Amino acid sequence: MKIVDVANFSTRRDVETGTETQRAAVLEILQAVKQEGDVAVRRFTEQFDRIQLTEMRVTEEEFKEALRNIAPEVRDAIREAAANIRDYHSRQIRQSWMTTRDSGTMLGQLIRPLQRVGLYVPGGTAAYPSSVLMNAIPAQVAGVEEIAMVTPPGKDGKVNPGVLVAAYEVGVNEIYKVGGAQAIAALTYGTETLKPVDKIVGPGNIYVALAKREVFGLVDIDMVAGPSEIVVLADSTANPAYVAADLLSQAEHDVMASAVLVTTCRELAQAVQQEVEAQVAVLPRKEIAQASIRDYGVICVVNSMEQGLDVVNRLAPEHLELMVEEPMAYVGQIKNAGAIFLGPYSSEPVGDYFAGTNHVLPTNGTARFSSPLNVDDFLKKSSLISYSRQDLLAHGQKIMSLARQEGLEAHARAIQIRLENERK
Fold this sequence. Notes:
Blueprint: E1 2-5, H1 20-36, H2 38-49, H3 60-69, H4 72-90, E2 97-100, E3 106-113, E4 116-120, H5 129-142, E5 146-150, H6 161-170, E6 174-176, H7 180-189, E7 199-201, H8 206-215, E8 220-221, E9 229-234, H9 240-251, E10 258-263, H10 266-280, H11 286-296, E11 297-301, H12 305-315, E12 319-323, H13 328-331, E13 339-342, H14 348-353, E14 379-386, H15 389-405, H16 409-422
Parallel strand pairs: 1-11, 4-5, 4-7, 5-6, 7-8, 9-10, 9-12, 10-11, 12-13
Antiparallel strand pairs: 2-3, 3-14
């Protein structure tokens, strides 16, 4: 892991957003599923996952099998994590509102949940029960009535037991053994088996990300997520072993994951560099972590905490850890970050799995303008307008002048006809 001075550190990161070949392949899949429905979904599942789907939807027996095969301590952990996540997101609930003026005009906002949401959970070579919890629970708290989950089958044609148990624990029972761009297409357009949805949430590979980008507008999406990333801002009080472990917790995700340490202490930088080399050597996913650290890992030495905070805000990281003596002293100066972890015991995996905060976070600098997945992502808002006669008479001429300024005479006359009638 290389050490650089701040003068030689770039906060710009170019992330591959898909080749023309990949985009063309995604468009072909979307069009085929739109036209052929289940036939195309089954064909692409056999082509990409090497699975012949006899039953696309997960059966009750498959749920029972998963419950038999999951370790009791894992199921207990899933239950407790789900309770923490539900408690945290329940505090985000907002209510419809209305205000009344003395003139009799009433204005307000009607807040309603989305009707049907599609949840994509990565699968195949890896399994992410936590993704089920993080995406399904905010939707349920918002009041979404229908959640359809899609996930790629494993080599045995089944869904990972942990994923199924997580879904069972939160009450998601409409699950389809389909992944990739074909799953996004099925959720968008609908097939003979799967009804279309209003919004698609959840992470996936480059083909899933490209498919979500293409269908946005026909359905809503949460975000187009890039590779995972972590930034640790540390001073001389930080434990180098802790810092190295947390950097590697993201590096093991993906060869394109980014792990960055920003520190005022060169001695800490050197100690973390040594710790990373030692710890990565014994990781089960060391090839992935080593590639990530080699290509996207860096330690940036800054001259002051103010300079470090500036670097952090320009990076706008997905995960930010403040491994400093007084982390709360700097929270107010953090402008851009998806999730902020304070102090030595708030390791990034605490938020990923258990604390209750959401781990679906903005990546690649998008924390400058976007937020973690939350209850509001599953709500839609309608404006309420009940204008009184008194206010129309008082402000009608102003409304007409604005309409005519924009060259929209019919707009102006819609007001004028009322004013003339009411003043008779």
